[in-house]
Amino acid sequence: xxxxxxxxxxxxxxxxxxxxxxxxxxxxxxxxxxxxxxxxxxxxxxxxxxxxxxxxxxxxxxxxxxxxxxxxxxxxxxxxxxxxxxxxxxxxxxxxxxxxxxxxxxxxxxxxxxxxxxxxxxxxxxxxxxxxxxxxxxxxxxxxxxxxxxxxxxxxxxxxxxxxxxxxxxxxxxxxxxxxxxxxxxxxxxxxxxxxxxxxxxxxxxxxxxxxxxxxxxxxxxxxxxxxxxxxxxxxxxxxxxxxxxxxxxxxxxxxxxxxxxxxxxxxxxxxxxxxxxxxxxxxxxxxxxxxxxxxxxxxxxxxxxxxxxxxxxxxxxxxxxxxxxxxxxxxxxxxxxxxxxxxxxxxxxxxxxxxxxxxxxxxxx
Amino acid sequence: xxxxxxxxxxxxxxxxxxxxxxxxxxxxxxxxxxxxxxxxxxxxxxxxxxxxxxxxxxxxxxxxxxxxxxxxxxxxxxxxxxxxxxxxxxxxxxxxxxxxxxxxxxxxxxxxxxxxxxxxxxxxxxxxxxxxxxxxxxxxxxxxxxxxxxxxxxxxxxxxxxxxxxxxxxxxxxxxxxxxxxxxxxxxxxxxxxx
Lengths: 366, 195
Ligand SMILES: Cc1cc2nc3c(=O)[nH]c(=O)nc-3n(C[C@H](O)[C@H](O)[C@H](O)COP(=O)(O)OP(=O)(O)OC[C@H]3O[C@@H](n4cnc5c(N)ncnc54)[C@H](O)[C@@H]3O)c2cc1C
Ligand code: FES
Description:
The complex is a heterodimer of chains A (366) and B (195). In chain A, the strands form three sheets. Chain A has a six-stranded antiparallel β-sheet with strand order 9-8-11-6-7-10. Chain A has a six-stranded parallel β-sheet with strand order 15-14-13-12-16-17, sandwiched between helices. By secondary structure, chain A is an alpha/beta fold. Chain A has nine helices and 17 strands. The radius of gyration of chain A is 24 Å and the shape is globular. The mean pLDDT of chain A is 91. Chain A has helices spanning 2-29, 53-59, 98-102, 123-126, 207-215, 249-262, 283-292, 318-325, 340-352; strands at residues 34-39, 45-48, 78-83, 105-107, 117-120, 129-142, 145-152, 165-170, 180-185, 195-201, 221-228, 240-245, 268-274, 296-302, 314-315, 333-338, 360-364. Helix content of chain A is 27%, strand content 29%. In chain A, α8 (318-325) runs parallel beside α9. Chain B is mostly helical and 195 residues long. Chain B has helices at 6-15, 27-32, 37-66, 75-97, 99-105, 108-111, 116-127, 132-160, 172-187. Chain B is globular. At the A-B interface, α1 of A face α3, α4 and α5 of B. FE2/S2 (inorganic) cluster (FES) is lined by residues 66-68, 70, 72-77, 107, 109 of chain A. Flavin-adenine dinucleotide (FAD) is lined by residues 67, 165, 182-185, 199-201, 203, 205-209, 229, 247, 250, 339, 363-366 of chain A.
């Protein structure tokens, strides 16, 4: 009996002692006390050292886009670090081009704040704020896509450009240990200031989309931050081709509504790629815009129409349909939204047809 | 039998009783991380550090805590706890000093915890009834021996990148064969110093 007690005591004591030691070491090693951050030559701000830069900035009310929640896989959280920040890490290099590396661009979720830093962050990101919203309606678009209307509090003052996106905070649920942020394009027009609408396509076992599709109810409260992105219509004379896949229609709905309201004249064709008829939505809306916007045309295309669809429109992969539609695309602009695979394939087709890469604008839904 | 002095133990555990090549302990990380000299060097250094530190600490844990209380049978779990904590400490230090090495070692750093060579060294020094200095020397030598072996293997494997290995033998398989040949060479020394 005595030996059992002493064995337990000895082990527990040893464990507790070592744990104490580690906690002390963590305190001394991990956090490096207050550190000065200087952003765009402004007044230095003090933050607590030891955290990833992304979260330190969030603590300062500066929201850097981060679709993967700091795992280093989306490559969205880029900032320029002019001073401090330590050596480039192997987790960053896959997301940075040689020019970006020369320009001291880093992934803010991987860099830890350890020493005084000087950063350069685009002014537009400094205007990003967090907004509490209320879910006003959830309307199914297709069997796996839903339109979510999020209402602002009075005088929230949210404004954006048609084509931009927001990040939705997925609250903690079901074994999720911390809130995660996911990007969704706004489908409602900028003139609507009381609410925004998002179109969410379900991703099997996806953290945010499962939450929205299965648990979210009208009346619930959420937090969003934004607006982000430089995917918006360039108001030039050039003819535009819009290519959307799945939920990638969302930003184009905002752009088209904006064009109709503000009477923007631009020749444009929207190619909307889907698998079969059950993946199509908002087709009547597109018909209306064809009437309202001179020079606009919408072309839905199905890659695998089901027999019962009785489909008479375009068929094939969206890249083939676009390629068939134009002899040469020189002088045009390309706007793409959808899965990374689709976008990469489309960029190849558009550049072959003569659109220079700097005239192709896209949001990869990765 | 007279046990050898600390310095002899140190040298002997590097060259004669190499923990990896004579006892075949610590094989998993040896095979996994011996692809590049740089990471092998990093892991080797970490193992030397952890092994020296844990053999010193475990010596005291055993002689001052477990033996007097008659709890020798707890040595496995007690040693593992000490090793785990030490590895955590080393991890924090490496992350602080060299984030690049930290990411290069990745999962293998925490895996040192279950590197059997480290537990093996702590257990051997109990069996062989080493003194504190002898234990430290044995830990440092064992670590250095392990580091030497993994460095040699990383060098070989880097050279081998240009040789044509049969597809069925690529990777771990050829590494095991090379290890066997290296071990054969080391067997030649065995018994030179009784430990
Ligand atoms: C700028 C931008 C705008 C975006 N706009 C929209 C939008 O308007 N509507 C919309 O629905 N989505 C949009 N997305 C995608 C969205 O941000 C999420 O990535 C997506 O909804 C999945 O999130 P999740 O939390 O449900 O899945 P996660 O938990 O992130 O992913 C779970 C698993 O699914 C895989 N996965 C992730 N995405 C996909 C996918 N698309 N197809 C197949 N597997 C996948 C992941 O690799 C992972 O293994 C946008 C993304 C970006 C970067
Ligand atoms: S947040 Fe996704 S890579 Fe940094």
